[in-house]
Amino acid sequence: MCGIVGIYSNKDIAKELYYSLYSIQHRGQESCGIAISNGDNINYKKDMGLVGDVFKESELANLKGSIGIGHVRYSTAGGSHLANCQPLVGRCRKRELALAHNGNLVNANYLRDMLEEDGYMFQANSDTEVILYILARYYKGDIVESIKITMDYIKGAYSLVIMGEDELVAVRDPHGFRPLVLGKKGDEYIFASENCAIDILGGEVIRDVEPGEIIVAKDGKLKSYFYSENYKPVKRSCIFEHIYFARNDATIDNVNAYDFRVKCGEVLAKDEDIKADIVVPVPDSGWAGAVGYSNESKLPLSEGLVKNRYVGRTFIKPTQEEREIGVKIKLNPLSNVVKGKSIVLVDDSVVRGTTSKLIVKSLRDAGASEIHLRITSPPVQYSCYYGIDTPHRSNLIASGNDVEYIREYIGCDSLKFLDIDLMVEATENKATFCKACFDGDYPVKKLDREELLSC
Amino acid sequence: MCGIVGIYSNKDIAKELYYSLYSIQHRGQESCGIAISNGDNINYKKDMGLVGDVFKESELANLKGSIGIGHVRYSTAGGSHLANCQPLVGRCRKRELALAHNGNLVNANYLRDMLEEDGYMFQANSDTEVILYILARYYKGDIVESIKITMDYIKGAYSLVIMGEDELVAVRDPHGFRPLVLGKKGDEYIFASENCAIDILGGEVIRDVEPGEIIVAKDGKLKSYFYSENYKPVKRSCIFEHIYFARNDATIDNVNAYDFRVKCGEVLAKDEDIKADIVVPVPDSGWAGAVGYSNESKLPLSEGLVKNRYVGRTFIKPTQEEREIGVKIKLNPLSNVVKGKSIVLVDDSVVRGTTSKLIVKSLRDAGASEIHLRITSPPVQYSCYYGIDTPHRSNLIASGNDVEYIREYIGCDSLKFLDIDLMVEATENKATFCKACFDGDYPVKKLDREELLSC
Amino acid sequence: MCGIVGIYSNKDIAKELYYSLYSIQHRGQESCGIAISNGDNINYKKDMGLVGDVFKESELANLKGSIGIGHVRYSTAGGSHLANCQPLVGRCRKRELALAHNGNLVNANYLRDMLEEDGYMFQANSDTEVILYILARYYKGDIVESIKITMDYIKGAYSLVIMGEDELVAVRDPHGFRPLVLGKKGDEYIFASENCAIDILGGEVIRDVEPGEIIVAKDGKLKSYFYSENYKPVKRSCIFEHIYFARNDATIDNVNAYDFRVKCGEVLAKDEDIKADIVVPVPDSGWAGAVGYSNESKLPLSEGLVKNRYVGRTFIKPTQEEREIGVKIKLNPLSNVVKGKSIVLVDDSVVRGTTSKLIVKSLRDAGASEIHLRITSPPVQYSCYYGIDTPHRSNLIASGNDVEYIREYIGCDSLKFLDIDLMVEATENKATFCKACFDGDYPVKKLDREELLSC
Amino acid sequence: MCGIVGIYSNKDIAKELYYSLYSIQHRGQESCGIAISNGDNINYKKDMGLVGDVFKESELANLKGSIGIGHVRYSTAGGSHLANCQPLVGRCRKRELALAHNGNLVNANYLRDMLEEDGYMFQANSDTEVILYILARYYKGDIVESIKITMDYIKGAYSLVIMGEDELVAVRDPHGFRPLVLGKKGDEYIFASENCAIDILGGEVIRDVEPGEIIVAKDGKLKSYFYSENYKPVKRSCIFEHIYFARNDATIDNVNAYDFRVKCGEVLAKDEDIKADIVVPVPDSGWAGAVGYSNESKLPLSEGLVKNRYVGRTFIKPTQEEREIGVKIKLNPLSNVVKGKSIVLVDDSVVRGTTSKLIVKSLRDAGASEIHLRITSPPVQYSCYYGIDTPHRSNLIASGNDVEYIREYIGCDSLKFLDIDLMVEATENKATFCKACFDGDYPVKKLDREELLSC
C-alpha cells in the first residue's frame, strides 16, 4: 500500500509532484518523498509524515529540475524508519538513479541473502533497496537492459518509477498486480498509481502501463519495451484495489472503482428477503455499495453514522477502558436516524471483524432494532503477499470460520458477503484479477512460511 | 464559529476534554485550548493548531483537576494570534477565572472603549476579553450576580462556559443564537456546543441550555438561574447551524441536523420539472440534501465528485495559474459517472459563489451534459453579526443580485434555492430561529457600519 | 535578571533589535520577545527559548516599523510560562502600549490585590503586568504624567522601556538598581541594559539613564524628565551586576566590569602568605579575578579547568548517581596542569556552595595537592528583592555560617572572601551601590516575609 | 573534523554515549548519531543538529544495549545531508555492522569508482560509506581479517569505531593522523577521539590506539592486532589537533594540548623587542598562547575582547552592510582595556586572514594605539587532505604571500608567526607529526588535483 508518481517534463516540476502526491495521500500516510533531476544531479527530500507537513514551499522551490519521482508510503515490508522512506537515491557507475516502488516482492529475503553473500551492504530493510541494488549491479549503460535482468530476479508485485539524470522509466510487474497509469499534459508525461494524480494537474489519462511493460521517457519521447519478447502478459490486477484501496474516481485496468462498488451493492441486494427500513453505509468505505444496495432494493439510503473528518490525524490512543471512544471518535451513530429501525448496514469488506463488532454495538446502543450487515466483497480468508497490508491468516476472522461464526462474533442479526463469482461478474470482465485474498489462488508461488514470516 | 466544552466531575478530566474537543474540531481549526482547575489553581495549555497536534499525552497527564473547560477556535472577531486563543484565564479579587466563548458581540467595540476609558488594558483583541473584564469588574464574590450584570452589558451571541476554582457555569445568551447542550455521565456534568462531544464520552444528553439561562455546577449539584426574572426567552436559534455548520448528528433546540437537511432536499425536489439522470451531492455538505432530493425525485443518487480526505491540512497554496488545482485537490469529478449525464447538483448553500462556479466548470470539463444546481437553503443576502464567518455583504453573490444573475455567474443550466418559508416548515417548527442572513431581520439591532467594520 | 532594549529610529529596526538582544542573551535565556510599532500599530513576536531559536529571518522581515523594544527573560517573579514572556503589549484609551521590564518590585502583591479589588483582571503573574495596568489606569493622554503616577505606586527595582505608537520611553527607578544605558547611532537612539547592545550596532554610548529619570524619544528628539522635581536621586547601583551578572565589557554607572573584577582579584592577593604554584580561574566567571590575582601575586595563571562551550544548551539531566557528570560536562579538570600542584582557585562569588564543592573534589581527584579558594566578593548572606535570582536565605551557605564552616563544607584547604569595604574601594567610588546581598542594608524596605514568599 | 566514541560494556550505555558525545561536541556541530547493539540487533538514531537537541531522554531509554558507537560530524567530504550522518548502519552476510569515522581518505573517489564498476550502489556521498562497503565486501566471518583487507584499500586518515552485534572494534590508520584514545571504567572499555569523553564518564585513560592498530573488544576482553605484522608504525599525529582543534584538556599521543599551547606562546615571546602594554588573547583559541606569552614577556594579560557565549547557535546572517556585526556579535572589544594601549594580540593560527583583519579593525576603532599580532603556529600554506577543513590553497592568505603582505592585509602594526622547528621543539618530541599544512610534506601521497577537487 504505497503510491508512486513520475513526471517527465521540460520545466520545473517539484510543485506538480507535490500536488500529485497530495492527491494519492490515501495510499500511504507514514512517509513521503520527492526526488528530482536537474539534468546533472538528483536532489531529494523525504521524511516521515504527510505530504502537506513534510514539504514547505521554499524547499520545493529549491528542488529544481524537470524530471522527478515521488512516493507516499504505508509500511508493509520494512519497518517504520526514516531509512525506509522512498524514493531511494543512489549512485552507480558514475550515474545517479532514484527509485520509487509500490508492491511487495515474495523473494526479497532470498535476494537479499544472495546479495549479502556477494558482499553487498544493505542500509535499509525494504524490498525496494533489493531492487535498487540488483538494478545497479546489472546496469552497464543501458537502463532497459538492466531493468529486464532485474525483472528476471524479482518475483511478486511491483510498480516502479525509476529515474536517471535524463530519463524516467515506468515498470509494471508481469502480472500487473499494482496499478500504474500513464497520462499526458502538453509535452509532459505523467505516471501515477491512480489517475487522480494526473487529473489534478489537468492532464489526461492515456492508458494503463501493461503487465511486464517498461516505458522509457527520454529525449522528449516515450518508448515502450516488454520484459520479454515471448512474454504473454497475464493480467492479475489486484481486486482489492477496486474493492477498497483506490479512490472512487480511480479507473484501473478499465474498471472504475465507483461503478464497480455500486454494482457490487446492487448485486448483493438482489434476492434479499429481509425486511428493513433503511440502508446505512459505513462511511466512507461503504458509501458506494450502499448507494447500489439502495438503488436495487428501493430501501431509502440514510446516514446513520457520522464520520469525524479529523480522524486519521494525530490522536492520543484511548486506554483499554476508554476503548469505545476509539470507535466513537471516528463514527458516531445518528440516534434519531437509527432508533427503532431495522437497518441494512453496508461495508466494503471485513478483515479482523473488530471494527464491525464495535460499530454494530454502537448502533444497537443508539436504538437500532435490527442490524443486517452486508459486505460488498467475499470473506477475506488469505493473507496478501503482494503489498496489501492484510494481517496474518490467524487474525482474519473469515479464515477457518463460517459466516454464522462471524455473524455471532460481530453481533449482527444477519450477515451476507458477496459471492466471489458475482463480484467478478460485477467487473464486467474488463480485466483479469488476483483474488488470492479470497480464494487462495496466488498467481506467484508464495515462498515457504518461515521465510515469509521473517520478511 | 467556535466550539466550547465544560466538564464538572470528581476525577481527572483532561483526557475527556481532549476527546470532546476532538469531536467538535469541525467548529474551529485555528487554535484550541484546555483550562483545568485542581481545586486551588487553574492551569492551562493553548496554542495555534488542531487538537490532535497541540496536546501531547504527557501534557494532558500534567493538567490535573476535575473541573475544566475547552475551546476550539475559528477566528471571527479578533485576528489570528496566540493572544486570542481561548480559554482566557485570569485572576481577579484573589480568585481565578477561566472563560471560553462561542459567538460574537455586536457592541464589543463600544464596551472596549468604555473599559479603556476607565483605565483597563486589553491584551488581546477578541470579544471574549471584553466579557472577561466585565465579569471581573462586577465580580464581588457571587459569580451568578456578576454574570447577570455582565449580561446587561453584552449584546449579541454568546454561549459561554466559565470556570472558577470550584465551580463551572454555562451561560447562553437571551436569544440562544449559539447552541449549548447539557449532558450527564454518572455524577459528571458536561456542557458542549454539540451533543457529539457528550456522546463521545458515553454520556447522555439532558437538554439544551435555555436562552438567558445560567447553569451552575458546584458542590456536586446543578442549579439553574435566569438572566432576569421577568425575562421571557425568545429563542432565535441560528438556522445556519442546522443548514451547514453543525455535524449531521447534532440535535440543537430539538432540530436534528441530518433530518432537517434531508427534509430540505425533499422539499426542494417537489414540483421540479427538469429531466435529469442523476443526483450528485457536493461532498460533504451536500450529501444529506442530495439523499432527500433523490428520495423525493426517485432520481438515483451518484457520487460525481470525490473528496480528498486530506484536504484541510497544511497545503501549499496554488499560484493564480494553478488556480483550478485548488478545487481539484479538494473535489475531483468522477468522469465516468457524469459523462453525458444531465445532473442535479445539490449543495447546502451558496455564499460567494466562487466554489460553485469552479465545481460546475470541472463537472462540465468531465463531460456532464446539463448541470442543475439545487441549494437546500435560501440565498444568503446579509452578513451575520452573531458569529458565523460570512463575508461582508458586497461579497455575497446573492446580495443585490437575482437568481438568474447568480446562475449565469456560476454557469449552471438551472439554479433553484429553497424558499425561506418552506425551509422553516422543514424544521417542523420545533424552534424559532434567527434567519437574518437570509431575510435581514436581525434579532439584536446591529450597530452602525463603521463600528462593525472596525470590529 | 533580564535584559531590555529599545530603539527609536526612522527605518525598520527589527533586525537591529535582534542583534541587540542576541548580545545580551546572557541576561536571560528562558524567553525573549520583540514588539515594534509601524506608527499605527504595535506588532510583536515572543516565545520561550533563545533569541537565535525564536526569531526566523522571515518573521523579522514582517515586523515592520522604526520604533521597537525587546526583552530577554530569566524568570524571577512570575513562573516560567508563555503568558509571562515580554514585552507585554496592550491597548488602553484607544492607543497601544508595549512594555519591557528588568527588575523586581517589592510591593507587586500589594498592588495586584489593590487592582483586583478595583475589578482588574490579571492574565499573567509577573510584576510587569502590574506596572502595565497602573500605567494604563492613569494614562490620560500624557505618557510622562502616567509614568510619574505609576512611579508613585511601584516600589523596588525597575528599568523599563515603554513604547507607544509614536514614542519610546526609558525609565529607571529612583535608586537605579538595574542598569540602563543610552546610546546613539546617527539619528537613532538606543536604550539597553548593557552597552554591548549598543556597541554591536556600531552605536556610541552617551550616558547612563539616571535614577528616577524618564527619557522620551519622540518627534526625532529626546526629552528628559525626572520622577519628581524635588527628587534627589540616590544611586544604589546593584554591585552584583559588576561582580557577576554583566558582561566583562559592560560599563554601568561609570564602573567597568572587567576593570573592577581584575582589581578585586588584585586586592585579594595582597597580604596573602600562602605558598602556591599556580592561579586557576573557575571559567568563565573567575577569569578576570584570576588575572588580577596573578598580576599582584606574580603566581602564574594556568587553565586548570576546561569549560565545555556547549553547556547551557539542552542537556538531559544526569540521575543522582551520575551527579558528578553534571559538573564534569561543564568543567573538566586539566590533570597535567593541576597534578601535584598547590593551586589558588579563583571565583567571583559563592552562593549555595554546591558547585564549588564539586569543583574542589574534581580538582583533588585530578591530583591537586592543595586548593586555596579565593572569592573576589564578600559572602552572600541575604536574598535579593530587586531582581537577582538569589535563593532564599536558608539556602545561602554564608547565611549564619562562618568562613571556616564554609571552607569545611566546600573541602578546600583555605578560603578567603574579599572584604566588603575593599570591594567598594575597588570601584574607585565611581558610584554608590546596593550591597544588600552582602550586608542586608536594603535601600527599599522589604515587605513582610509572608508576602514576599508568595511573590 | 569529527568526533567518535565507542563503548563496550555489560549494561545499557545509551546515556553514557550521550554524555561522551556531548563532551566532544566541539569536534562537530552539524549532525550526530548513536548506534547501539542489544546483542541481536543494532538500533540507531541520528539527525542534523547538536547532541543536546537531537536526543531526547525517552529516545535514549529506548536504545537498549551494552555495545554502542557515536559520532559528531562537521562536514568535510560529503555534503551537508541527512544521508551523510553517522554512524552508518548496514547488514551484510546476515550480520549487522555499524561504523563511525573521523578523518578523510585520499583515494575515496578511486575506490568509489572501483566499487561502482563492480555494481555497488552508493546512497550517501561520504568516505565512510566507501569504507563500509569494502568492509562488507571482504567480510567472511572474521571482522579483523576484513578490516585488514579494507586497510589495504583505503589510504589517508581514519580513526574508526566499528560495531557488530557482539563486538566493538577500534581502528587507527597506519600514520595515526587522527586521535583515538582507549579508556577503561570498571569492566567497561571506552574508545574516543579525545580523553574528555572518557573523563566525563569517570573512566581512566589507558593509552592511545597505535597507528595501524586494530583493537577488538569481545567476550569481555580486549585483543590487539596490527594492520600488518611487518608494519612499522610511523606516527604522523596531526599537529593541528594540538594547535587548535582538540580541547585544552586533550592529551593526544603524549602531547597535552594546553601545555603545548602555553609553551608555544612562551617560545614566541622570546627575543621580542617590541614595547607593548598588554597581552590580549583572541578568545577562546588564543588564551593558552597568550598565557604563555605573558608568562615569558612579563607583560600583563588582559581581556581585550569579550566573547558572546551564545554564538555558534542559530544566528540570522548579517547582510553585507551589516558585515561588522558578524564579528562584533562574536567578539566585542573592551574599549577601556585597549584604549591608548599598545597591545600584543595572540591567536593560535591564521587561515584566511579575514577574521583577524576584522578583529584588528575593531580593536583600532576601540582605541588601541598599536596592535602586534602574534600567532602561535607557522603560516598555513597548504590544504589538508586528512580531515581538517582548511580551504583550498588559493584561499589561504599565507599561500604564496610573505609575512609583510599578510601584515598589511590584516592591518596590524607587526606580525610574527611561530617558527616551524620551534613549534616542534615545543612538543618536546613526544611524538612525530604531520605538519603538511605548514610545510607541504604530505605523509600519504596526495592524488591528482582533478580528483581531489571532485571529492
Reading off the top of the CATH hierarchy, the class of the largest domain in chain A is best stated as Alpha Beta
User: What is the helix tally of chain A?
Assistant: 17
- Total beta strand runs of chain A: 23
Shape descriptor of chain A reads elongated
Strand order of the largest sheet of chain A: 3-2-4-1-10-9-11
Q: What class do helices, strands and sheet pairing of chain A give?
A: alpha+beta
Helical content of chain A, roughly?
25-40%
Low-confidence regions of chain A: 448-455
Largest sheet of chain A: 7 strands, antiparallel
Strand content of chain A: 25-35%
Oligomer: homotetramer
What is the number of domains of chain A? 2
Pathway (chains A, B, C, D): Purine metabolism; IMP biosynthesis via de novo pathway; N(1)-(5-phospho-D-ribosyl)glycinamide from 5-phospho-alpha-D-ribose 1-diphosphate: step 1/2
Binding site for [4Fe-4S] cluster (chains A, B, C, D): 238, 384, 434, 437
Organism (chains A, B, C, D): Romboutsia ilealis
Protein name (chains A, B, C, D): Amidophosphoribosyltransferase
Helix/strand layout:
The structure is a homotetramer of 455-residue chains.
Chain A: E1 2-8, H1 14-23, E2 31-37, E3 42-48, H2 51-54, H3 57-62, E4 67-73, E5 88-92, E6 95-105, H4 108-117, H5 127-137, H6 143-153, E7 156-164, E8 167-172, E9 181-185, E10 188-192, H7 196-199, E11 204-208, E12 213-218, E13 221-226, E14 237-238, H8 239-245, E15 251-252, E16 255-256, H9 257-269, E17 278-281, H10 287-297, E18 305-307, H11 323-328, E19 331-333, H12 335-338, E20 342-347, H13 354-365, E21 370-375, H14 403-410, E22 414-417, H15 420-426, E23 433-434, H16 436-439, H17 449-453
Parallel strand pairs in A: 14-23, 17-20, 20-21, 21-22
Antiparallel strand pairs in A: 1-4, 1-10, 2-3, 2-4, 5-6, 6-7, 7-8, 8-12, 9-10, 9-11, 12-13, 15-16, 18-19
